[in-house]
Design brief:
Helices cover 12% and strands 51% of the residues. It has six helices and 21 strands.
Length: 419
């Protein structure tokens, strides 16, 4: 089947699943209730007066859902990934408030993605948890993978000229990453400070002949039997965050610096350092219309394992480049994105359906090199996407990105926005 038809089939499957989803998402601004109903809802539960019999069972269920703190959406079925091809995939979006009595409290978000392929399994989550009136946060990245993957070498020229294939780049990846971040608000400001821990184990199994001959792979200690590395790091994060909803901001600014050191004394196989800058800003230009832009820089110094070098091209930045297709000691990206949800009257089924749909378009480029100032390659990028709101301000995103360097198009399916 042609790759573009695969994309279309996947969109139809995902959309059909959305229509039949037994979501527990909160429904807001529902005008279907009669004006003379005396139903009341409290955060602690669902209470209704003697006139509740005037409501239909469906309306009662809807009002019960409104009173629930824990909301979730589950989607699953045949899927498609640019890195794994056709697969059985599933996504879950869990949201909740850690303080139901505080209506201004940001809702905690926990998206989970799972993919089952003929090569194995991939599982990932990027939680955002808010506690104590948002004075304490726990963010993080948690990944597990035992699946097929590709390694293209190190450096722009090597990456660009390496042909993806079974004999050149393919291997079996066995990896796990646990990277929690603990952030404390400074006084009454939007400044946060806190520690982070990074424990990552990477193993390359069954490397292709092209990988075995790669100089960077050989210098790192890899051979025909494979390569493995344990990175154990500690670091500090300083950030400024004035976003209204971090998972899908309509306004505000986010700036973060994180520095980590990996050392043999704390269990790491090699000694190296990692420094990252992340700037994002959001501006509302109409009802549910947003312009978002970001500048990000990732850099490593020292004896960095080849599996821990910054990569350019993921589902959260340059969509259109295979994950890990471009890697070096330094990676920078600049992106701007326009996001718009449709605003229709929610007086009937079609109006409610259209109101949950939206679209986005983005453009930008990436830069990579041996160090932060010596850049060897430019990676232009652009794309369009479909948005489906499954909970208030929580979207499923279907993105179609263009890689102008290698002249390829890739398709992505994720929960929450890219940045």
């Amino acid at each position: 089947m042609n790759e573009y038809y695969r994309h279309i089939v996947f969109i139809l499957i995902a959309f059909a699943l959305f229509l039949t989803d037994k979501s527990k998402a909160q429904e807001t601004n529902d005008n279907s209730l009669p004006s003379n109903d005396s139903i009341t809802v409290s955060p602690e539960g669902f209470n209704y007066t003697q006139s509740y019999k005037a409501l239909s069972k469906r309306q009662i269920r809807r009002e019960k859902r409104k009173s629930r703190n824990f909301q979730y959406n589950l989607l699953g079925g045949p899927s498609y990934s640019p890195d794994f091809g056709f697969l059985i995939g599933g996504s879950a979006l869990f949201t909740f408030s850690t303080d139901k009595s505080n209506k201004e409290m940001k809702r905690s978000v926990m998206p989970i993605n799972i993919a089952l392929t003929t090569g194995g399994i991939t599982l990932g989550s990027r939680p955002q948890l808010f506690f104590n009136d948002d004075r304490f946060r726990i963010f993080g990245i948690f990944n597990y993978k035992y699946n097929k993957d590709n390694y293209y070498g190190v450096g722009y020229d090597t990456n660009h000229n390496t042909i993806r294939g079974h004999e050149t780049t393919l291997y079996t990846a066995s990896s796990m990453q646990i990277n929690p971040c603990f952030l404390f608000r400074i006084s009454e400001t939007d400044l946060f400070l806190g520690p982070t821990i990074d424990l990552t184990y990477d193993k390359i199994l069954k490397p292709a002949e092209g990988i075995i001959k790669d100089n960077s792979y050989i210098n790192a200690g890899g051979n025909s039997n494979g390569y493995s590395n344990l990175s154990s790091g500690l670091g500090l994060i300083a950030s400024y965050d004035s976003r209204d909803v971090p998972a899908n901001a309509y306004k505000g600014l986010f700036f973060e610096f994180r520095g980590l050191f990996y050392n043999r004394y704390i269990g790491s196989n090699t000694n190296y350092y990692r420094a990252e800058l992340d700037y994002r800003q959001y501006k509302t230009v109409g009802k549910r219309k947003v312009i978002a832009w970001t500048v990000q820089s990732k850099n490593t110094f020292g004896n960095t394992p080849i599996t821990r070098l910054p990569i350019t091209g993921t589902a959260f930045d340059l969509r259109g480049y295979y994950m890990g297709q471009y890697r070096d000691n330094s990676s920078h990206i600049v992106l701007a994105e326009y996001r718009q949800m449709f605003n229709s009257e929610k007086t009937n089924f079609w109006g409610k359906l259209i109101n949950r749909l939206g679209w986005t378009v983005w453009g930008g480029c990436g830069f990579m090199g041996e160090n932060p100032v010596k850049l060897n390659g430019i990676l232009p990028n652009a794309g369009i996407g479909l948005r489906i709101e499954v909970q208030p301000r929580m979207n499923i995103r279907l993105d179609f990105g263009r890689n102008f360097v290698d002249k390829q198009n890739l398709f992505y399916f994720n929960m929450t926005e890219a940045f």
